[in-house]
Every structure is written in C-alpha cells, then in structure tokens.
Design goal:
Belongs to the cytidylate kinase family. Type 1 subfamily. It catalyses: CMP + ATP = CDP + ADP; dCMP + ATP = dCDP + ADP. There is one protein chain. The protein has 215 residues and is of the alpha/beta class. The protein folds into two domains: 1-28 and 115-211, Rossmann fold (3-Layer(aba) Sandwich), CATH 3.40.50.300; 33-114, Rossmann fold, CATH 3.40.50.300. Helix content is 53%, strand content 16%. It has helices at residues 15-26, 33-47, 52-61, 85-94, 98-112, 124-128, 142-155, 162-178, 200-214, and strands at residues 4-8, 29-32, 64-67, 70-73, 76-77, 117-121, 134-139, 191-194. Strand 4 and strand 5 form a beta hairpin. Helix 4 packs parallel to helix 8 (162-178) and helix 7 (142-155) packs across helix 8. It is globular and about 45 Å long. Bound molecules: cytidine-5'-monophosphate (C5P). Residues 11, 33-34, 37-38, 88, 91-92, 95, 121-124, 172, 176 line the site of cytidine-5'-monophosphate (C5P). Cytidine-5'-monophosphate binds at residues 11, 33-34, 37-38, 88, 91-92, 95, 121-124, 172, 176.
Length: 215
Amino acid sequence: MPCRIAIDGPAGSGKTTVAKILANRLGIYYLDTGAMYRIIGLYLDEKGVENDSDIEKELSTIKLEFINGDFYLNGKRVGDEIRTPYAGICASKYAKKAIVRKFLTRIQQKISKNENIVVEGRDIGTVVIPDAEVKIFLVASTEERAKRRYKELLDKGVNVSYEEVLNEIILRDKQDTEREIAPLRQPDDAILIDSTKYTIEEVINKILEVVLERC
Ligand code: C5P
C-alpha cells in the first residue's frame, strides 16, 4: 500500500517547509502543487489569455514535466521566478478556471499514483487524492503567515514590502476559499494543525505519529 500524505492549507501556513522536511525524513517524494499553479498562471498571464477557449489552446501546447523534484516547462527548468507575490496572484486567478484545474489535477494524480509521496496544496485531500492515507490541514493566523512569507522572500532576495505580502495573502485567501471549483476547505477526515501554536519540529512530529499509525 502506498503512503500518500496530503497537506492542505492557506498561503503561508507552513505547508512547504513542513512537507519538504517530512518527505526528506521519510525518504519519499515531495510534490508542490502550488508551484504548478504558479507556473501555469504566470505563463497564461504572459500570453494575456482570459477566456476558456484561448486558455485551452495554450494548455494544449504546454509540456509540464516533473523530473527529480524539478519542474520543466516546455523543456526549460523552472526557478525562483514563480515565487513572487505577483506569480501567486496569477496562480490564484487562473486556479479558478475549471479547465486549468482539470489540466493540473490530471498531472498531479499521475505523479502521485501508487507512490510514497507528500503532496501539498489546497485541494489535495478533497479532490486530487481523496483517498490519501494521511490528510493534514495546516493553518496559522493571517499576520503570522504574512510575517513568515515576508521573511522567506527577503531571505531569497525578492524585493517586497510587508504590506504587499499581507495584502497578497488576504486576496489569495479570499480567492482560494470563495472559488466555485475545488475551493480551499478542510477535508472532513483531515487532522487540523494550527502552526501558530507549534514549532516546525512539533508539527512534523505530530504528522509523523499519524504516518506511523496509517502507513
Ligand atoms: O501554495 P502556493 O501559495 O504556492 O499556491 C499558489 C496558488 O495556487 C494558491 O493561492 C491557489 O490559488 C493555487 N493552488 C490551488 N490548488 C492547489 C495549489 C495551489 O488552487 N492544489
């Protein structure tokens, strides 16, 4: 039986940090589905396409690959250009589109099928892997999430203000929870962890306990 760990939650809740460390400790794959929405969101934004038929045309020409933990768009390795607040907004905007979700969900399901893998996103436990062995819903206060994101971006050398990051998080929360298709919500059978109250290590240990029980 594979061990598929679905980690969902809002922007900046600590999903990426936790998912990466967890996958590393368990020696299993890690899939960042948010990165996939960022890649496609930026690409479609650059092309300036808005309606479904134009988006569909663009998607049919795109080759998105996941090789050894890296994404390749039409043969070119994707880097930190997808980590800006603007890329997050583009991701969230196009993530509302059924056609984009269908395109990416299919790729995500293919990658995670029968794998031991940690998959993080917004709809992993609800849509992408509804029968995941472990489902975690990670949350934190809005201010805490903005603070963390801001620090992360500064460390990466991305030039932004705290207000810009906070506003981006508020806007994305709204778009992600209010969209009609696959909105961000806690799966009924997920374990809720509020990372404001715990250190990363404590969050990881809590998840590892569940993994030991179920995998
Ligand atoms: O996780 P990250 O913040 O990088 O995700 C960027 C955006 O991609 C989210 O705000 C959300 O709109 C979208 N997303 C999604 N479903 C996922 C992962 C990300 O809609 N599974």
